[in-house]
């Protein structure tokens, strides 16, 4: 019993010690809980402040984009007004010149009459001199005075016209200096050409280039093989390849030297290491050899940079300008060419492909794209296919989606992509506009407007195509990879022509259209008949299995 009582006392002592420890731990736990509540409160307040900051930043970005859109629109409007004013001044100047020419003709006839009368009097002066010496002298003096008075009027009038022409030339040169505010190099501009803007211009492609626009005097009827060394060098300057003129002058004897050269000679003798520059030169020389007139050759590389603005891909203007990509190169662009130009997005490949096709349809008319809303209320697909990126943004503003319109900058969305690519749907457009998926009413409104734009039949065929083929929807994350040849292909390389190896973005012939990435489908009826490129036989359509 004594031992048990001792154990009991020790246990009681241990229990009291443990009780004290539990109480101390409870105090610590209560302190930690209060500290945790305080930190949680601070965290909640910080999250609220962050959310408010994000909302404020989003609203500021939206305002910034809207202001950028307004500034761009005002710039375009200012350019149009300047162009209209310039044409008005030019027409007025021409009218004044015609009026002045009329006065000059009248004065010339007057002087001619006086000269005839003076000659007549001089002829009969000898016979009349004896009998009517005083009368003839008075008549001759009168005619001479009138003649000199008329000549004085002519001289004074010509001086006035000269001063007016000098004044108009001064105004025109000031206008050229004011409008050439872009970032072009000196080799791209010519002293006798009027160019508007530079690589940053968004006024759209208004200028084209013709073979006669060069500053070097060349007879275009003379075959290229007979051109002299200086004529060839001058042509290279005009063609945007002026950096190779020095080596060319040391190597080339005549145009025949370039025509008979091999592709590796351009790199060895002229120092053309840029593959697109070699391709540009080869395409031009092929045009000289075949004497084929291609409308695309009239569009220079400056026009192409402005064309990129129109189709909504201005972020690639520096690469295209560096590669000197002109209209003829657009016609023969390949997938690897675009990858070399750092265009890796599948959506952007499709955008460029559809835009090139629109150029084919319109025979490379530099003014085929529409940039401003017209009088059409219900545009047809053949009209929508010619809409530029800016025109699509104007349509978004018209259907009460103005706050999302600036998101299309740099997206590559234009009318040709909307109409020609069956995988491009209202969901794709909503994704590019950054409309959240939870805004179902807004997306439904966009789908309704999109259906009204492309037509009910087109929307139905787009939906059927997507469901039948099972293609993944277009996304901005999809990339294009260069094609790699396996070992089995190398045995056939020597048997194939160089043109057969070219994977053109937009093939010229209808037979090659099926090889286009993502474009191997038959266009719907709304755009059939626009071009032989789209009007293929039904059996050329990709085999599609029946719906399950």
Automatic annotation (TrEMBL):
It comes from Oncorhynchus tshawytscha (Chinook salmon). Belongs to the liprin family. Liprin-beta subfamily. The lineage of its organism: Eukaryota, Metazoa, Chordata, Craniata, Vertebrata. PANTHER family: LAR INTERACTING PROTEIN LIP -RELATED PROTEIN, LIPRIN-BETA-2. This is SAM domain-containing protein. SMART domains: SAM (SM00454). Residues 227-291, 304-362, 387-418 form the SAM domain. The keyword Coiled coil applies. The keyword Repeat applies. Residues 29-56 form a coiled coil. Pfam families: CC_Liprin_beta, SAM_1, SAM_2. One of its GO terms (biological process) is neuromuscular junction development. InterPro entries: LIPB1/2_CC (IPR058914), LIPB1/2_SAM_1 (IPR037617), LIPB1/2_SAM_2nd (IPR037618), Liprin (IPR029515), SAM (IPR001660), SAM/pointed_sf (IPR013761). Gene3D superfamilies: Transcription Factor, Ets-1 (1.10.150.50). One of its GO terms (cellular component) is cytosol.
